[in-house]
Amino acid sequence: MSATVSEERSADGGPGPAATRPSVAVRNVSKSFRLPHQQYHTLKERALHPLRARTFDILQAVQDVSLEVAPGEFFGIVGRNGSGKSTLLKCLAGIYNIDEGELEINGRLSPFIELGVGFNPDLTARDNVIINAIMLGLSRKEARERFDDIIAFAELEEFIDLKLKNYSSGMYVRLAFATAVQVDADILLIDEVLAVGDAAFQQKCFDEFTRLQAAGRTILFVTHDMASVERFCNRAMLIERGRIVDIGEPSSIARQYNQLNFRRMRQEAADRGAEVEVPDRPLIAEVQNAWFESEPGEIAVTVQQREPCVVRMNVHFISPLDDPIFAITLQNESGQSVFSTSTDAQRITTGHFDAGTTATIRIPFENWLAPGRYRLFAAVVRSGFGAAEIHAHVSSSVIVLADRAGGGMTDLPSRFEIERE
Fold first, then answer.
1. Of 391, 410, 218, which is closest to residue 321 (Cα–Cα)?
2. How many alpha carbons lie under 13 Å from residue 188 in its C-beta half-sphere?
3. Looking at CB atoms within 10 Å, which of 106, 220, 281, 398 has the fewest?
4. pLDDT-derived band of residue 203, with 50, 70 and 90 as boundaries?
Protein backbone atom coordinates (compact mmCIF):
# COMPACT_ATOMS: atom_id res chain seq x y z
CA MET A 1 0.00 0.00 0.00
CA SER A 2 1.32 3.44 -0.83
CA ALA A 3 2.06 5.93 1.91
CA THR A 4 0.28 9.26 1.75
CA VAL A 5 0.12 12.31 3.96
CA SER A 6 -2.60 14.87 3.52
CA GLU A 7 -3.15 18.31 5.03
CA GLU A 8 -6.37 20.23 4.48
CA ARG A 9 -7.05 23.81 5.53
CA SER A 10 -9.37 26.55 4.38
CA ALA A 11 -8.18 29.60 2.46
CA ASP A 12 -8.03 31.74 5.61
CA GLY A 13 -5.81 29.21 7.38
CA GLY A 14 -8.57 27.84 9.63
CA PRO A 15 -9.96 24.33 9.62
CA GLY A 16 -11.31 23.28 6.27
CA PRO A 17 -13.41 20.30 5.24
CA ALA A 18 -11.13 18.02 7.24
CA ALA A 19 -12.50 19.47 10.49
CA THR A 20 -15.14 16.72 10.57
CA ARG A 21 -12.50 14.06 9.95
CA PRO A 22 -9.84 12.75 12.35
CA SER A 23 -6.95 15.11 12.95
CA VAL A 24 -4.60 12.14 12.59
CA ALA A 25 -5.35 8.81 10.94
CA VAL A 26 -2.83 5.97 10.80
CA ARG A 27 -3.89 3.01 8.68
CA ASN A 28 -1.87 -0.23 8.65
CA VAL A 29 1.45 1.61 8.89
CA SER A 30 4.72 -0.32 9.00
CA LYS A 31 8.30 0.93 9.15
CA SER A 32 11.50 -1.12 9.19
CA PHE A 33 15.21 -0.37 9.21
CA ARG A 34 18.13 -2.25 7.67
CA LEU A 35 20.99 -2.90 10.06
CA PRO A 36 24.06 -3.83 7.99
CA HIS A 37 26.42 -6.38 9.50
CA GLN A 38 29.40 -4.37 8.25
CA GLN A 39 29.54 -0.58 7.87
CA TYR A 40 32.04 1.26 5.67
CA HIS A 41 33.80 4.33 7.02
CA THR A 42 36.11 5.11 4.08
CA LEU A 43 36.10 4.71 0.27
CA LYS A 44 39.11 2.41 0.63
CA GLU A 45 37.12 -0.03 2.78
CA ARG A 46 34.30 -0.03 0.25
CA ALA A 47 36.72 -0.73 -2.64
CA LEU A 48 38.50 -3.54 -0.80
CA HIS A 49 35.30 -5.22 0.49
CA PRO A 50 32.52 -4.48 -2.01
CA LEU A 51 30.30 -7.39 -0.91
CA ARG A 52 30.70 -7.26 2.85
CA ALA A 53 27.83 -4.83 3.52
CA ARG A 54 25.27 -6.74 1.48
CA THR A 55 24.16 -8.76 4.49
CA PHE A 56 21.96 -7.08 7.05
CA ASP A 57 19.30 -7.61 9.69
CA ILE A 58 15.79 -6.16 9.49
CA LEU A 59 14.49 -4.19 12.49
CA GLN A 60 10.70 -3.96 12.31
CA ALA A 61 10.19 -0.77 14.31
CA VAL A 62 6.46 -0.29 13.56
CA GLN A 63 4.19 -3.16 12.50
CA ASP A 64 0.70 -2.74 11.06
CA VAL A 65 -0.34 0.15 13.33
CA SER A 66 -3.79 1.70 12.90
CA LEU A 67 -5.35 4.45 15.00
CA GLU A 68 -7.41 7.64 14.74
CA VAL A 69 -7.07 10.77 16.86
CA ALA A 70 -10.06 13.13 16.96
CA PRO A 71 -9.74 16.92 16.71
CA GLY A 72 -8.92 18.41 20.11
CA GLU A 73 -7.96 15.06 21.64
CA PHE A 74 -4.95 14.64 23.94
CA PHE A 75 -3.69 11.18 22.95
CA GLY A 76 -0.93 9.42 24.89
CA ILE A 77 1.51 6.92 23.38
CA VAL A 78 3.42 4.79 25.87
CA GLY A 79 5.75 1.84 25.64
CA ARG A 80 9.12 0.58 26.79
CA ASN A 81 12.36 1.83 25.23
CA GLY A 82 12.63 0.44 21.70
CA SER A 83 8.90 -0.24 21.39
CA GLY A 84 8.51 1.99 18.31
CA LYS A 85 6.60 4.93 19.77
CA SER A 86 9.16 7.60 18.81
CA THR A 87 9.57 6.04 15.36
CA LEU A 88 5.81 6.34 14.85
CA LEU A 89 5.92 10.02 15.78
CA LYS A 90 8.80 10.62 13.36
CA CYS A 91 6.79 8.95 10.60
CA LEU A 92 3.90 11.30 11.33
CA ALA A 93 6.29 14.26 11.29
CA GLY A 94 7.68 13.24 7.90
CA ILE A 95 11.16 12.58 9.27
CA TYR A 96 10.90 8.94 8.20
CA ASN A 97 9.15 7.57 5.11
CA ILE A 98 6.85 4.65 5.89
CA ASP A 99 7.16 1.28 4.14
CA GLU A 100 3.47 0.41 4.06
CA GLY A 101 0.16 1.95 4.98
CA GLU A 102 -1.28 5.43 4.93
CA LEU A 103 -0.96 8.55 7.08
CA GLU A 104 -3.55 11.33 7.05
CA ILE A 105 -2.86 14.65 8.76
CA ASN A 106 -5.68 17.20 8.73
CA GLY A 107 -4.25 20.48 9.96
CA ARG A 108 -0.96 22.26 10.46
CA LEU A 109 1.46 20.05 12.35
CA SER A 110 4.29 21.00 14.71
CA PRO A 111 6.72 18.35 16.00
CA PHE A 112 8.25 18.71 19.48
CA ILE A 113 10.54 15.76 18.82
CA GLU A 114 14.08 17.07 18.64
CA LEU A 115 14.05 20.58 20.07
CA GLY A 116 16.51 22.99 18.56
CA VAL A 117 17.06 21.17 15.26
CA GLY A 118 18.23 23.87 12.88
CA PHE A 119 19.78 26.09 15.55
CA ASN A 120 23.19 27.45 14.59
CA PRO A 121 25.57 27.61 17.58
CA ASP A 122 27.59 30.40 15.97
CA LEU A 123 24.55 32.71 15.75
CA THR A 124 22.99 34.68 18.58
CA ALA A 125 19.73 33.72 20.26
CA ARG A 126 18.06 36.62 18.46
CA ASP A 127 19.04 35.32 15.01
CA ASN A 128 18.29 31.71 15.85
CA VAL A 129 14.78 32.49 17.13
CA ILE A 130 13.84 34.36 13.95
CA ILE A 131 15.30 31.72 11.62
CA ASN A 132 13.86 28.76 13.52
CA ALA A 133 10.40 30.34 13.85
CA ILE A 134 10.31 30.87 10.08
CA MET A 135 11.41 27.25 9.54
CA LEU A 136 8.53 26.14 11.77
CA GLY A 137 5.97 27.97 9.64
CA LEU A 138 5.74 31.57 10.86
CA SER A 139 6.19 34.48 8.50
CA ARG A 140 9.11 36.85 9.07
CA LYS A 141 6.68 39.47 10.41
CA GLU A 142 5.06 36.98 12.81
CA ALA A 143 8.46 35.79 14.00
CA ARG A 144 9.55 39.35 14.82
CA GLU A 145 6.23 40.16 16.52
CA ARG A 146 6.50 37.12 18.78
CA PHE A 147 10.20 37.46 19.52
CA ASP A 148 9.70 39.24 22.85
CA ASP A 149 7.16 36.63 24.01
CA ILE A 150 9.54 33.81 23.06
CA ILE A 151 12.44 35.33 24.99
CA ALA A 152 10.22 36.12 27.99
CA PHE A 153 8.90 32.57 28.11
CA ALA A 154 12.47 31.22 27.98
CA GLU A 155 13.54 33.78 30.63
CA LEU A 156 16.61 34.70 28.57
CA GLU A 157 16.22 38.46 28.24
CA GLU A 158 19.81 39.07 29.36
CA PHE A 159 21.29 36.62 26.85
CA ILE A 160 19.61 37.43 23.52
CA ASP A 161 22.84 38.66 21.94
CA LEU A 162 24.94 35.78 23.23
CA LYS A 163 25.94 33.06 20.77
CA LEU A 164 24.24 29.72 21.35
CA LYS A 165 27.56 27.89 21.68
CA ASN A 166 27.96 29.74 24.98
CA TYR A 167 24.55 28.64 26.27
CA SER A 168 24.14 25.94 28.88
CA SER A 169 22.08 22.89 27.89
CA GLY A 170 19.19 24.14 30.03
CA MET A 171 19.19 27.57 28.37
CA TYR A 172 19.32 25.93 24.95
CA VAL A 173 16.30 23.72 25.70
CA ARG A 174 14.28 26.63 27.10
CA LEU A 175 14.92 28.71 23.99
CA ALA A 176 14.06 25.84 21.64
CA PHE A 177 10.82 25.02 23.44
CA ALA A 178 9.76 28.66 23.71
CA THR A 179 10.26 29.05 19.95
CA ALA A 180 8.42 25.87 19.01
CA VAL A 181 5.40 26.55 21.22
CA GLN A 182 4.73 29.86 19.43
CA VAL A 183 3.85 28.09 16.18
CA ASP A 184 0.12 28.22 15.36
CA ALA A 185 -0.21 24.47 14.92
CA ASP A 186 -3.43 22.45 15.03
CA ILE A 187 -1.61 19.21 15.83
CA LEU A 188 1.36 18.86 18.19
CA LEU A 189 3.67 15.84 18.32
CA ILE A 190 5.41 15.79 21.70
CA ASP A 191 8.18 13.31 22.48
CA GLU A 192 9.37 13.41 26.12
CA VAL A 193 9.70 17.20 26.18
CA LEU A 194 8.76 17.23 29.87
CA ALA A 195 11.81 15.11 30.68
CA VAL A 196 14.23 17.96 30.00
CA GLY A 197 15.05 21.20 31.75
CA ASP A 198 14.90 22.05 35.44
CA ALA A 199 11.87 21.62 37.66
CA ALA A 200 10.59 25.17 37.18
CA PHE A 201 10.78 24.86 33.40
CA GLN A 202 9.06 21.47 33.46
CA GLN A 203 6.17 23.04 35.35
CA LYS A 204 6.05 25.76 32.71
CA CYS A 205 5.73 23.01 30.09
CA PHE A 206 2.83 21.50 32.04
CA ASP A 207 1.10 24.86 32.19
CA GLU A 208 1.61 25.48 28.48
CA PHE A 209 0.23 22.07 27.51
CA THR A 210 -2.78 22.69 29.73
CA ARG A 211 -3.37 25.94 27.85
CA LEU A 212 -3.00 24.22 24.46
CA GLN A 213 -5.38 21.48 25.56
CA ALA A 214 -7.95 24.08 26.64
CA ALA A 215 -7.53 25.79 23.26
CA GLY A 216 -8.64 22.60 21.51
CA ARG A 217 -5.32 21.62 19.98
CA THR A 218 -4.80 17.98 19.03
CA ILE A 219 -1.82 16.55 20.90
CA LEU A 220 0.01 13.22 20.51
CA PHE A 221 2.14 12.76 23.60
CA VAL A 222 4.92 10.16 23.97
CA THR A 223 6.08 9.66 27.55
CA HIS A 224 7.16 7.19 30.25
CA ASP A 225 5.43 9.22 32.96
CA MET A 226 2.14 7.48 33.72
CA ALA A 227 1.03 10.31 36.03
CA SER A 228 1.15 12.71 33.06
CA VAL A 229 -0.79 10.24 30.93
CA GLU A 230 -3.56 9.92 33.50
CA ARG A 231 -3.67 13.66 34.17
CA PHE A 232 -3.68 15.02 30.61
CA CYS A 233 -4.75 12.35 28.14
CA ASN A 234 -8.27 11.59 26.92
CA ARG A 235 -7.11 8.22 25.58
CA ALA A 236 -3.81 6.38 25.39
CA MET A 237 -2.14 3.61 23.42
CA LEU A 238 0.35 0.98 24.61
CA ILE A 239 2.81 -0.21 21.98
CA GLU A 240 5.29 -3.08 22.32
CA ARG A 241 7.80 -4.26 19.71
CA GLY A 242 6.15 -2.10 17.09
CA ARG A 243 2.64 -3.48 17.59
CA ILE A 244 -0.35 -2.03 19.39
CA VAL A 245 -1.12 -3.83 22.64
CA ASP A 246 -4.22 -1.79 23.50
CA ILE A 247 -5.92 1.59 23.06
CA GLY A 248 -8.22 2.78 25.81
CA GLU A 249 -8.68 4.76 29.01
CA PRO A 250 -5.43 6.29 30.36
CA SER A 251 -5.74 4.51 33.72
CA SER A 252 -6.13 1.13 32.01
CA ILE A 253 -3.17 1.76 29.69
CA ALA A 254 -1.04 2.92 32.64
CA ARG A 255 -1.78 -0.31 34.51
CA GLN A 256 -0.92 -2.44 31.49
CA TYR A 257 2.31 -0.50 30.95
CA ASN A 258 3.37 -1.09 34.56
CA GLN A 259 2.48 -4.77 34.34
CA LEU A 260 4.57 -5.04 31.17
CA ASN A 261 7.53 -3.43 32.92
CA PHE A 262 7.01 -5.67 35.95
CA ARG A 263 7.15 -8.82 33.82
CA ARG A 264 10.35 -7.54 32.19
CA MET A 265 11.89 -6.88 35.59
CA ARG A 266 11.15 -10.44 36.68
CA GLN A 267 12.63 -11.84 33.47
CA GLU A 268 15.78 -9.71 33.75
CA ALA A 269 16.26 -10.85 37.34
CA ALA A 270 15.93 -14.45 36.22
CA ASP A 271 18.35 -13.92 33.31
CA ARG A 272 20.93 -12.41 35.68
CA GLY A 273 20.61 -15.40 38.00
CA ALA A 274 19.69 -13.13 40.88
CA GLU A 275 20.79 -14.28 44.33
CA VAL A 276 17.17 -14.28 45.46
CA GLU A 277 15.00 -16.46 43.25
CA VAL A 278 12.07 -14.69 41.58
CA PRO A 279 9.34 -17.33 41.24
CA ASP A 280 7.32 -17.31 38.04
CA ARG A 281 3.95 -17.01 39.74
CA PRO A 282 0.79 -15.32 38.51
CA LEU A 283 0.15 -11.75 39.61
CA ILE A 284 -1.84 -11.86 42.85
CA ALA A 285 -1.96 -8.13 43.63
CA GLU A 286 -1.88 -5.02 41.49
CA VAL A 287 -0.97 -1.42 42.27
CA GLN A 288 -3.65 0.19 40.14
CA ASN A 289 -2.21 3.69 40.49
CA ALA A 290 -0.08 5.85 42.76
CA TRP A 291 0.23 9.59 42.95
CA PHE A 292 1.09 12.59 45.09
CA GLU A 293 -1.64 14.66 46.63
CA SER A 294 -1.96 17.69 48.84
CA GLU A 295 -3.15 17.37 52.41
CA PRO A 296 -6.78 18.16 51.44
CA GLY A 297 -6.68 15.19 49.03
CA GLU A 298 -6.20 16.88 45.64
CA ILE A 299 -3.89 15.26 43.06
CA ALA A 300 -0.62 17.22 42.95
CA VAL A 301 1.75 17.53 40.01
CA THR A 302 3.83 20.04 41.96
CA VAL A 303 4.26 20.34 45.71
CA GLN A 304 5.72 23.17 47.73
CA GLN A 305 8.67 22.45 49.95
CA ARG A 306 7.89 22.54 53.71
CA GLU A 307 4.20 21.88 53.11
CA PRO A 308 2.62 18.53 54.11
CA CYS A 309 2.61 15.99 51.29
CA VAL A 310 0.89 12.63 50.85
CA VAL A 311 1.63 9.64 48.64
CA ARG A 312 -1.48 7.62 47.84
CA MET A 313 -1.63 4.18 46.26
CA ASN A 314 -4.56 1.94 45.38
CA VAL A 315 -3.92 -1.81 45.49
CA HIS A 316 -6.25 -4.47 44.11
CA PHE A 317 -5.87 -8.04 45.37
CA ILE A 318 -6.47 -10.72 42.75
CA SER A 319 -5.88 -13.58 45.20
CA PRO A 320 -5.98 -13.75 49.02
CA LEU A 321 -2.85 -12.40 50.69
CA ASP A 322 -1.69 -12.21 54.30
CA ASP A 323 0.29 -9.27 55.64
CA PRO A 324 1.49 -7.76 52.33
CA ILE A 325 4.21 -5.15 52.54
CA PHE A 326 3.39 -1.76 51.02
CA ALA A 327 6.48 0.23 50.00
CA ILE A 328 7.42 3.47 48.28
CA THR A 329 10.71 4.98 47.06
CA LEU A 330 11.45 8.46 45.72
CA GLN A 331 14.31 8.92 43.27
CA ASN A 332 15.76 12.22 42.08
CA GLU A 333 16.67 13.02 38.47
CA SER A 334 20.07 11.36 38.92
CA GLY A 335 18.40 8.07 39.86
CA GLN A 336 19.45 8.32 43.53
CA SER A 337 16.97 7.10 46.12
CA VAL A 338 16.34 10.02 48.48
CA PHE A 339 13.47 8.57 50.51
CA SER A 340 12.14 5.06 51.07
CA THR A 341 9.71 3.59 53.54
CA SER A 342 7.56 0.51 53.94
CA THR A 343 5.12 -1.05 56.34
CA ASP A 344 7.79 -3.65 57.08
CA ALA A 345 10.40 -1.03 58.00
CA GLN A 346 7.89 0.64 60.33
CA ARG A 347 6.91 -2.75 61.83
CA ILE A 348 3.28 -2.41 60.71
CA THR A 349 1.24 -5.60 60.32
CA THR A 350 -1.18 -5.05 57.45
CA GLY A 351 -3.47 -8.07 57.99
CA HIS A 352 -5.41 -10.30 55.60
CA PHE A 353 -6.85 -9.19 52.25
CA ASP A 354 -9.45 -11.28 50.43
CA ALA A 355 -9.51 -11.74 46.66
CA GLY A 356 -11.33 -8.85 45.01
CA THR A 357 -10.48 -6.42 47.82
CA THR A 358 -9.14 -2.96 46.96
CA ALA A 359 -7.08 -1.09 49.54
CA THR A 360 -6.15 2.59 49.65
CA ILE A 361 -2.83 3.37 51.32
CA ARG A 362 -1.88 6.94 52.26
CA ILE A 363 1.64 7.87 53.39
CA PRO A 364 1.83 11.46 54.74
CA PHE A 365 5.31 12.90 55.19
CA GLU A 366 7.02 16.20 55.84
CA ASN A 367 8.33 17.49 52.53
CA TRP A 368 11.92 18.64 53.05
CA LEU A 369 13.05 17.53 49.60
CA ALA A 370 15.30 19.88 47.64
CA PRO A 371 13.62 21.50 44.61
CA GLY A 372 13.58 19.24 41.56
CA ARG A 373 11.72 16.41 39.88
CA TYR A 374 11.21 13.14 41.76
CA ARG A 375 9.98 9.78 40.55
CA LEU A 376 7.76 7.72 42.81
CA PHE A 377 7.95 3.93 42.85
CA ALA A 378 5.12 2.19 44.69
CA ALA A 379 4.97 -1.55 45.24
CA VAL A 380 3.25 -4.35 47.12
CA VAL A 381 5.45 -7.25 48.24
CA ARG A 382 4.65 -10.67 49.69
CA SER A 383 5.64 -10.76 53.33
CA GLY A 384 8.49 -13.13 54.18
CA PHE A 385 10.12 -13.21 50.73
CA GLY A 386 11.89 -9.87 50.78
CA ALA A 387 11.80 -7.23 48.09
CA ALA A 388 12.60 -9.69 45.31
CA GLU A 389 9.05 -10.98 45.03
CA ILE A 390 7.21 -7.85 44.00
CA HIS A 391 3.65 -8.51 42.94
CA ALA A 392 2.95 -5.07 41.52
CA HIS A 393 4.92 -1.96 40.78
CA VAL A 394 3.95 1.46 39.42
CA SER A 395 5.71 4.80 38.95
CA SER A 396 4.63 8.41 38.96
CA SER A 397 6.41 11.74 39.37
CA VAL A 398 6.18 15.10 41.12
CA ILE A 399 8.03 18.42 40.97
CA VAL A 400 9.08 20.01 44.27
CA LEU A 401 9.14 23.79 44.24
CA ALA A 402 11.03 26.02 46.67
CA ASP A 403 12.05 29.64 47.07
CA ARG A 404 15.69 28.61 47.27
CA ALA A 405 17.75 25.44 47.40
CA GLY A 406 20.08 24.52 50.21
CA GLY A 407 22.39 22.53 47.94
CA GLY A 408 21.81 18.96 49.13
CA MET A 409 19.34 16.19 48.37
CA THR A 410 17.12 17.45 51.17
CA ASP A 411 16.73 20.78 52.94
CA LEU A 412 16.24 19.63 56.52
CA PRO A 413 15.13 22.25 59.04
CA SER A 414 18.17 23.74 60.74
CA ARG A 415 19.45 26.89 62.36
CA PHE A 416 22.77 28.55 63.13
CA GLU A 417 23.82 29.48 66.66
CA ILE A 418 26.73 31.89 66.69
CA GLU A 419 28.50 33.01 69.85
CA ARG A 420 31.23 35.57 70.11
CA GLU A 421 33.93 35.21 72.76
1. 391
2. 31
3. 281
4. confident
